[in-house]
What does this fold into?
Amino acid sequence: MLENLEFVQSIPICCALAVCGGLLEVGATAVTAVPAVRESEGRSMRPWLYWFALAGNLGLQFIGSIMSHLVATWFGPVSIVVPFFYSSTLLSNMLIFGVLLGTEHFSKLMRVGSYVIVVAVILLPVVGPEAQENQDIIALFHHWYAILWFTFLLCAMTITGALLLFGIDKFKENKRFFILLTARAAAISVNLTVSRSFILSPSKFMLASFVALKIFSGSIYTYAIVVQATTVDQARFVPLNTTTIILVNAATGILIWEDWRVIQSWYGYACVFVLLGLGCDMLLSLPQLDSNNPHFGTGRRMSTLITKGLSQRGGYLTIQEDQPSQRPLAELDLPDRLDSSQQTPSVSLTRKEAW
It folds into this structure.
């Protein structure tokens, strides 16, 4: 059992695992996006190659999730895992799709926004919470504020998860945004909390409950990704979702894991979140190329296979749907490649509408 193993707390290991998880998530999307680019160029692809790409996508996503959403929490504060994970996806976007594959052009505003977030995250271990050894999960959950916050997260996750299951198309866009933001932020906070609890010698009842919550919260988080791909504007939702998850996760660290005892600089900690908010604001015009992407993310590909089906013609694969991949990757809901004077009005309008 995990409680019989010794996990020495280490912020560097925690950060490295979170970064690797983010890199693998974007890599998983690249595995799926490359075949779509081949199709857009008129190059036929055998069915087994498509299935191999899908399997690679799911496999990399699974490994990345284990590294960042489970093992990383065993070596450091949960409030550090999420910022490093999301900053890693931002840099990986530019590295994989911009430099290695050369399929995307990232404007100066996008690059600056990504750099602001990365700088803020680099400062986080310096001013944020330190690692805490020998925490007692039972003692932590004896505090009324920890119980109240965890109950709130559970209720929010359950209610919004039920709404997602029954469909949110009937709601107005602002309500759809609220439901999805709440579902994903609450689910990932619960998921990371129970992940860290596995190594803190919980009682048998608590361990069984945490395993069930791990599966339940992970299911809601994944299903929310599938739903958001078709119900909200990705360019506006993804940066807001990142900001919300980071803030809710920080609150979870303070109220449940008592990060307030070991925060090195409250002023610096507050400034880090200001920088994160500013960086996300700059990215409100960029649909991220990770599992959230409506065309190449896991949700889109799974929906394609489940709802539309596949057919074979002469040994090659034809997807029975109006494929967005029939156009080049750069044209799929991404900012037009215009000069800065042409881009600025649309970016400003998008940011104003989002906030």
